[in-house]
Amino acid sequence: MKRLALIAWLGELFCLAAAGFAGEVDSVLQQAMELEEAGDFAKADALLSGALAGSGLSGGERRQVAFEQERLVRVRKDYGVSKAALLEALEQSVRSLTQAEFEQWVGKGWFDGRVIDGKLCFVSASVANLYFRHPELEARRLKPTDTRAKERAYLENARSIRRAAARRRRPYVLPKRFHVTMSVTVASNAVAAGELVRAWLPVPRRCPFQDQFELLRAAPPKAQIADADSPIRSVFLEQAVPAAGPVRFEVEYEYTACGVWFNLEADRAKAADLGDAELKRFTAEGPHLAFTRRLRELSESVAGGEANPLRKAKLFYEWIAQNIRYSFAREYSTLRNLSDYCLTNRYGDCGQEALLFMALCRLNGIPARWQSGWTIFPGDQNLHDWCEIYVPPYGWVPVDPYMGICATQIARTLKPSERLELRDFYFGGLSQYRLIANSDYCQELWPPKRSFRSDTVDFQRGEVEAGDRNVYFDQFNYALKWREVALPKRGK
User: Fold this and answer.
1) Boundary-marking domain end, from 57, 78, 99
2) Is the pTM of this model over 0.85?
3) Number of domains in the chain
4) Which of 37, 120, 328, 428 shows a CA-CA span of 20 to 30 A to 159?
5) Which residues have C-beta within 8 Å of that of residue 466, sequence separation ≥ 6?
6) Which of 257, 460, 263 minimizes the C-alpha distance to 350?
7) β-strand 347-348 against 325-326: which pairing, if any?
8) 96-143 pLDDT, tens per residue?
9) Shared-domain flag, residues 231 and 267
């Protein structure tokens, strides 16, 4: 097994705050990884079960082995589509698709597919991802989506924020207040009657352009709210499962968010003072942010001898916008190095793209940190990840690599000049239609979860556990509804 893959895997385990390896445990985990990558999940599972049945494992080592066994279950869920089912779905989506053409696409690796215990399986997003990765097929899509209104709305929103920021000479403008209701409903067959179920639901954290959070209602009513400056902010709720029916958690709240636009001038930019320990930690390697040989080569080819931190970061942003395709991702907990996965495959989702950009920045001494939650842009609500970079004299500046990709590759109804305008806005700008719950990744919930996290990297859909076991994403539903309301009167 290549040393780099093992290092990336150990980084993921660090994300779980696990203890160090003993020699035998190291060997078992490496063998299990090799078996899993070869598609022999049954043997990998048996190997890990044997290790757990033995004696002599510390608590931390046992948790590492147990998570790797859980990871096999999660990968199987991600690859839940058979070859026959994929063909059937594609025939209902792509005009005039032939069996020979489908086989050619499979052979070229156009879909996320892998062999698991002798069976070729594909991820559920394979059809949607086909159009992202091969936009030339858009003309053959049987049910195309009209994106003109949405793309125009994004552009006009960006323009209004830029105008207001220029007029008022400050980066945080045009505040909006949102009323949000979020719920998590656990399937009745996932928990037993009378069992105590605990849930963590994301809520807005405090930052310079998001504040005035007010919890209006919680069900059940007794709620614990993480600190306003928490890097992963949640409302914690618990209740016993009723005798009949599913168990439901719900929170209702309001918060205020501003549009953001920094009028960035590269000639004013300076290198960050890495004598500041808080800034320096955001230039370090970490889980999913390994400074690999491939990353170093890309950095050199894109930025070359450029020394200005702002120009260098913009070059990385533009390269990603031009060269990385958007794709729906597998669950983050099943991937060993998200930034390297994105770079290797030249595609990824918003979080993978953000981590790739962060890795390039950190490698070059530019502090970069995670930011995530939801985008609630009208008609385009979804989970979303992006990031911030620190550049004096501006401070922390938002950068959304996904929106750079969207403007460059996906927003086809805009003029070329408008696409460039939208791309450049999201290097230093951000819409008000964001719900920011996280300012870092791989963070600990409060109070801590006893079981494995469903998402070991991010926190957007909520987390649930019953007793000491995790309730995974396929065992609960989540929903977020919002509406814009009047801003509080001054003085309140």
Assistant:
1) 78
2) yes
3) 3
4) 328
5) 186, 190, 191, 192, 195, 196, 197, 198, 241
6) 460
7) parallel
8) 999 999 999 999 999 999 999 999 999 999 999 999 999 999 999 999
9) yes
